[in-house]
Amino acid sequence: MTHSPQPSYAHGTSSTPLLGETIGENLRRTVEKFGDREALVAPFQSYRATYRQFWDEVSRAARGLMACGVQKGDRVGIWSPNRYEWVITQYATARIGAILVNINPAYKTAELEHALNLSGVSLLVMAQAFRTTDYVAMLQEVAGNCPGLRQSIVIDSQWPQLLAEGDKLAESELLEREFGLQFDDPINIQFTSGTTGLPKGATLSHHNILNNGFFVGETCRYTEQDRVCIPVPFYHCFGMVMGNLGCTTHGACMVIPAEAFDPLETLRTVQAEKCTSLYGVPTMFIAELALPEFADFDYSSLRTGIMAGSPCPVEVMKKVTAQMNMREVTICYGMTETSPVSAQNSTDDPIEKRVGTVGRIHPHLEMKIVDAETGAIVPRGVQGEVCTRGYSVMLGYWGNDDATRRAIDATGWMHTGDLATMDESGYVKITGRIKDMIIRGGENIFPREIEEFLYAHPAVADVQVIGVPSEKYGEEVMAWVKLRDGQAASGDELAAYCKGRIASYKIPRYWKLVDEFPMTVTGKIQKFRMREISTGELGLQGAASIATA
Hints:
By secondary structure, the chain is α/β, with parallel strands linked by helices. 32% of the residues lie in helices and 25% in strands. The protein contains 17 helices and 28 strands. Strands 3-2-13-12-14-15-16-17-18 form a 9-stranded mixed sheet, with helices on both faces. Strands 9-6-4-5-10-11-21 form a 7-stranded mixed sheet, sandwiched between helices. It has a 5-stranded antiparallel sheet with strand order 1-19-20-22-23, with no helix packed on it. α2 crosses α3 and α4 packs across α5. The longest helix is centred in the first third of the chain and has 17 residues.
């Protein structure tokens, strides 16, 4: 009897059940078990809180938001670099059933306005400024175009006032609100650009992100003894789900090394706080390893961590394992729409599996690899599109049913747009992307958004944006530009046009002025040919395997 080849399908069986509770209920249980253990540390803010102290401040902030009139289902924006108040706001909104809207600290005015209006943010918790960017001035510039926004709270000056307002509200009112929440309620909107242009709001529930954080922590073998250094941004799932929720579901300590990534401060914090786990995209680890002071630090406390977000070079993984004592470092794969992790290496996987693959399917999830044209599952070892199904799949794109239907099919499968193979043991290797998404240092960048912005330049007739290899960032942004007849503009002038209007990481590093683009006979632009040509002309080398978070 002949058998058909083994299909590229895997189900993450597990004897550990899913958490059937809200984020607030889960945190309450952690506080009851580990109340005297440290929960949150931000040395640069001189902030240190046990789980009991953390719970009390979250309660005050939750009541403060209620005193400001925030109802269940209202959208509360958070626009700030990594600070302890970001984490307090994350848990406070969850406990009152408000939907936290994560706004990238790098956003400029046009992106801020889009984010506020798309999600209908009514209250914005924000930093005064970050580096050279004045957030308050930027908000004033766009506030008149955001009719839903009725209040902003500036962390630097108004945080004590928010907590004081909370003290005026009875604890019983907060408890009444909490007990009326369901774990399938939406709790978070994260912006993820689509191939059709402006960012879409992936809407996630308590169930989505609480369980994903929990199982990431389980795979890293977290206990209340762990202290996790989180230099990755909170506005992204890597920080707030894999980091914060990974910790609070296990009684581990969240350690914030700086407002934004700083390699020296990260290593100082790892040593001073005796961190057992360290997160980062590969470029962060590369920057840490390259520090002149690297050998001066004590890495003996480190055990595990996560590298994700963009290509993971083999040599970097080996150095992190050997020189930083991270013997159990893992790689994660996923996307914002899947809360985010779908696959992860085990801490005891052999190094070749931890470097060459993104591990196996996570507990309680399903993965299949299909022919992108027919939708049929391909045999093991054959490349196809990754699809994920299970508790982690988002509720949908906020206010965009059409885009949701295109992403999640009628049988509940999230079509990722990533290309991969699955081996006989179920290990997944990401081989490319159907979408043209560029992953630069862990930031997901979608060419269409940049193209639409550049089309507004009076000298630009047509523009195509691609990703080209970069040793430092995995990929860099490049724009091929066709100018209007009689118009002149240099790459430097076009870059200057972008500055301050779109996030700096989206501004093309390379510019090529052309008369035409490579096309098929049917008139479709061949971006793969553009990449080949540009990679050759620029003398760039490709990166190793791809892992996204």
